[in-house]
Amino acid sequence: MADQPKPLQVKDGDFKGWFLSPFHDDYVNHIGPFYYLPGADGTMQVALKVEQRHLNGGGIMHGGCLLSLADTALYVFALDNLQTSGGVTMQLDAQFLSPGNLGDIVIATGEITRAGQSTIFGRGQIKVGDRMVMTFSGVIKRASKSGA
Q1: Helical spans, DSSP H, in 1-146
Q2: C-beta separation of 109 from 129 below 8 A
Q3: In angstroms, how far is CA 67 from the centroid of its own chain?
Q4: CA-to-CA separations, 61 to 9, 75, 144, in angstroms, rounded
Q5: Could you report the per-residue pLDDT of 58-84, keeping only the tens digit for each?
Q6: Long-range contact list for 40-43, CB < 8 A, 24+ apart?
């Protein structure tokens, strides 16, 4: 897979040392940017800084934005299992525990719990520092690269 573009490393700011995806994804680009940080143990963190545009009418991070972060993170966690296929989310369950606030850096961490021939199962959590914001679990169905 040498023809894939390399991730772009952030040089300064809140996400110095993190990476941005080099792939074009209109939806993720619209609500992001999302930042990615691989761990030495192979785990991956996915993060977003909460901006005014991410807030709902109550002044806290919109639940749909948190779900988008969880969905993106679940896919990122599954990338090693999707080397020869694409994937689409079949199921995403979430428990909202506390709000994300303007200026917060929300970070998703998690793991793949099972990878079968047609489905991949994962779970994760989204935190601001030590404060749990949301937990989630989901199922990805393997699909062609076009999503069919």
Answers
A1: 26-31, 63-77
A2: no
A3: 9
A4: 26, 21, 33
A5: 999 999 999 999 999 999 999 888 887
A6: 42/80, 43/109, 43/111
Task: Answer yes or no: are the C-beta atoms of 88 and 108 closer than 8 Å.
Answer: no
The model's pLDDT over 76-126, given as tens digits with 9 standing for 90+, comes to 999 888 887 889 999 999 999 999 999 999 999 999 999 999 999 999 999
pLDDT classification of 1: cutoffs 50, 70, 90:
very low
Strand ranges (E), 7-118: 8-9, 19-20, 35-38, 44-49, 86-96, 105-115
Sheet hosting strand 19-20, strand order edge to edge: 8-9, 19-20, 35-38, 44-49, 105-115, 119-128, 131-143, 86-96
Q: How far apart are CA 60 and CA 40, in angstroms?
A: 33
Whole-number Å distance between alpha carbons of 5 and 90: 28
Produce one character per residue of 73-106: b if its CB has 16 or more CB atoms within 10 Å, e if not. Answer: bbbbbbeebbeeeebeeeebebeeeebbeeebeb
The letter for the amino acid at 6 is: K
pTM of the model: 0.89
